Amino acid sequence: MSMTRITRLRRSLEELFPERHLYVRSGGEMRAYVLTTSKQLMAAAGVGAAALWMGICTAAMMVNGMQMSASDQEIARTQAKYERWIADRQARLNSAVAQLNATNGSIDDLALSVEKRHAALAMLLSDYKTTPGAADALAPEIHRASADLTVTDPVRRIELVRAGQERLLDSADSFAKGRAERLRIAFRLAGLSPNGYAPKSGELGGPLIEAKDPSALAAVLDVDEDFAARIQHAATNLSEARTLGAAAEKLPLAKPTSGGRQSSGFGVRFDPFTKRPAFHSGLDFGGGFMTPIMATGPGVVSFAGVRSGYGNTVEIDHGQGFKTRYAHMQAIAVKPGQRVAVGQRVGGMGSTGRSTGVHLHYEVWVNGRAQNPSRFVKAGEYVQQAAD
Predict the structure, then answer these.
(1) Strand 277-280 relative to strand 369-371: parallel, antiparallel, unpaired?
(2) Cβ–Cβ < 8 Å for 377, 363
(3) Three-state secondary-structure class, residue 257
(4) Pick the CATH number of 261-387 from 3.40.50.720, 2.70.70.10, 3.40.710.10, 3.20.20.70
(5) What value does the mean pLDDT take over residues 158-183?
(6) Which residues contact 159 (CB under 8 A, 6 or more apart)?
(7) Which pLDDT value is given to residue 386?
(8) How far apart are CA 278 and CA 266, in angstroms?
(9) Would you tell me which of 103, 117, 249, 254 could form a disulfide with 296, CB atoms 3.0–4.6 Å apart?
(10) What is the pLDDT of residue 230?
């Protein structure tokens, strides 16, 4: 920087901070102090440095306070969590004490109530034994309940057994409700209304759902009303699932051949002979010569012989308006009036009648109207998945 600029800067500072005189009276005497420009600058620099230091200290205190606040919040959250946990444990303890007080503090009376609940569960589970898939669904809770019986402390053992009964009942109800819902879906896939096959309100059977209300069932089973209501709900769901399952077993939901591939669908197609659009009333399954053809549902053979255009044909009446037809067969293995089971062989695949090659023409009729067989096949596959 040149001397001229330095001189100009000095003059500017002197104009901003002109020399000042400070008079102070002390002991009857007047003293004068001269505040030069340089002294004023030094004083201003000191004040600025002090203000900066105070700002830094204030900011540090604020940051530290924020950090302490976050730490305090985390501590408060942890404390609240443990307080809730302790409150929950205390509530469970109070519930156990209340149960003991309700039974006059007698462990024997409490054990008796557990035995009565167990007897009610045993009645429910006896129906589940014959339901496909129920054993696998309930096995984990049954195994866990068996393990609870090995606890040596009698009060703790009773507590665990009661909790196990609750879980087992929940699992049973969930299984029955899920199976009933899957069967309803299967009926819808087949184009059928599940309401027409579900039990009506007055048609539910079984000793656990004969009582009109949970309070009556509670009196019969000698258990608390809430537990009786849950038993009744699970039994109702199981009854509906079993009714729908029994109805599904009577319907033609199986596949007519295990190895055949679907070669032509239901609906309008070009006729292989006339080359014109024509309605195809069934499904065609290709396969090898004499590939086994099976009944898709239980029923009675209503026709076995030759039909015009169909060649060697078997028709089965499944009841309730359902009928299936198997055509173009090379051989027929059943006779009219014969009762057949689902999956039973009714003939062998061929190319008789109005046919261009070895295949099976399969039809499903409901109340005299041809239906799309693929819907019944898909519904059967879904029912099978639900049972596995």
Answers:
(1) unpaired
(2) no
(3) coil
(4) 2.70.70.10
(5) 81
(6) 96
(7) 59
(8) 11
(9) 254
(10) 81
Place of tokens 């033609």: 252
Residue 56: how many other CB atoms lie within 10 Å: 10
pLDDT tens-digit readout, 105-126: 456 666 667 677 777 777 777 7
How far is residue 10's CA from residue 4's CA, in Å, rounded to a whole number?
10
Question: For the whole model, what pTM was predicted?
Answer: 0.59
End-to-end CA distance of the chain: 95
Rounded distance between C-alpha atoms, residue 351 and residue 329, angstroms: 6
Q: Are 296 and 375 in contact (CB under 8 A)?
A: no
Strand-pair partners of 369: 366
Rounded to whole angstroms, how far apart are CA atoms 120 and 123?
5
By the 10 Å C-beta count (0-12 exposed, 13-18 middle, 19+ buried), 45 is classed as exposed
Identify the top-confidence range among 17-21, 41-45, 91-95: 41-45
Radius of gyration (C-alpha) of the chain in whole angstroms: 45
Strand partners, 339: 300
DSSP 353: S
Q: Are 337 and 300 in contact (CB under 8 A)?
A: yes
Beta carbons of 326 and 256 less than 8 angstroms apart:
yes
**Structure confidence at residue 103 as a pLDDT band (50, 70, 90):** very low
What is the distance between the alpha carbons of residues 132 and 130, in angstroms, rounded to a whole number? 6
Q: How many CA atoms lie within 13 A of 332 on its CB side?
A: 21
Which residues, at least 6 apart from 122, have a Cβ–Cβ distance to it below 8 Å? none
H or E stretch at 313: strand 311-319
How many Å apart are CA 199 and CA 239, to the nearest integer? 8
Calculate the average pLDDT of the chain.
75
Helix axes 214-221, 107-128, angle to 10 degrees: 110
Measured CA to CA, the distance from residue 55 to residue 331 in angstroms comes to 104
Residue 141: closest CA among 116, 156, 124, 154: 124
